[in-house]
Design goal:
Layout lengths: L3 E7 L6 H6 L6 E6 L6 H7 L3 E4 L5 H8 L7 E4 L4 E2 L2 H10 L7 E4 L1 E5 L2 E2 L10 E6 L3 E3 L9 E3 L3 E3 L4 E6 L2 H21 L6 H18 L6 H31 L1
Parallel strand pairs: 1-2, 1-4, 2-3, 6-12, 7-13
Antiparallel strand pairs: 4-9, 5-13, 6-9, 7-8, 10-11
Helix pairs in contact: 5-7, 6-7
Length: 252
């Protein structure tokens, strides 16, 4: 029987880590890769029986590539601290990894934002490539955020979802998207993308229309409207910050 290792990346996740690990009690191994938390994350993880390794955080792709080297078992399931598994998901994964191929599996997610399960606007089924066969998977180092897996082989799709409690408040959403805008601007700059005036003007309404109309965000009521508006805004923000990077480079 092939066994499964769970890897959780953490930084000050004392609120989530116990419930996260408890929901994954069907795993054969728990590993927490911690970025030097200043709260009780490490203490709680160890009490729960997880192996804890601490490593400075550079970016998400770098951290996940480092995490791929830590488990005892070849099959690895990446889970975030604010995500929860189920016995049904565990059973499905353990059945799937007994067979070759695939060498990776996409996991659907139920995203709860501001207390509501969001089923439209691009937030469902929100497949994530998280179950990986070591030696056949690595993360693209140019993608600092919204990591991209480079897989040497084919991937399949699971049916049972993770539950993701990703944003409790609007303020939390705003703060995280602000950081993402910085990351995205740097990624675009490294690719040589130069923002044009028409992009700065047209990108926000295009993204809003895509989220709200094409991806049916209107079906999620006020939540869908606000999420679509904010995602349009942060698309523009990433391009404005990209514009600032190019200006700064010209002056140096």
């Amino acid at each position: 029987m092939r066994k499964l290792s769970i890897v959780v990346l953490t930084k000050n996740e004392e609120r989530n880590i116990a419930d996260c690990l408890r929901s994954l009690d069907w795993a054969d191994e728990w590993i927490v890769l911690d970025s030097f938390s200043t709260d009780r994350t490490v203490e709680i993880a160890k009490q729960m029986g997880a192996q804890v390794v601490q490593r400075p955080f550079v970016n998400y792709a770098d951290q996940r590539n480092a995490a791929l080297q830590l488990p005892t078992h070849d099959w690895i399931f990446f889970v975030d601290a604010d995500e929860r598994g189920t016995p049904q998901l565990g059973m499905e994964i353990k059945q799937k990894i007994q067979h070759d191929p695939p060498v990776g599996w996409w996991v659907p997610r139920h995203n709860y934002i501001w207390g509501k399960w969001i089923r439209h606007a691009g937030w469902y089924p929100d497949y994530q490539l998280r179950v990986l066969l070591r030696g056949k998977a690595r993360y693209d180092p140019t993608r600092e955020v919204h990591e991209v897996v480079i897989l040497d082989g084919e991937a399949g799709y699971l049916e049972n979802p993770l539950t993701h409690y990703n944003y409790d408040t609007v303020a939390q959403f705003l703060a995280k998207q602000d950081r993402y805008a910085d990351y995205e601007a740097r990624v675009l700059y490294k690719k040589g993308v130069r923002p044009k005036v028409h992009q700065l003007i047209l990108q926000p309404p295009r993204e809003f229309r895509r989220r709200y109309i094409t991806l049916e965000g209107y079906k999620d009521g006020l939540h869908g409207l606000l999420l679509s508006l904010l995602m349009g805004y942060y698309t523009a923000l990433a391009y404005w910050r990209l514009r600032g990077i190019w200006r700064e480079k010209k002056l140096t």
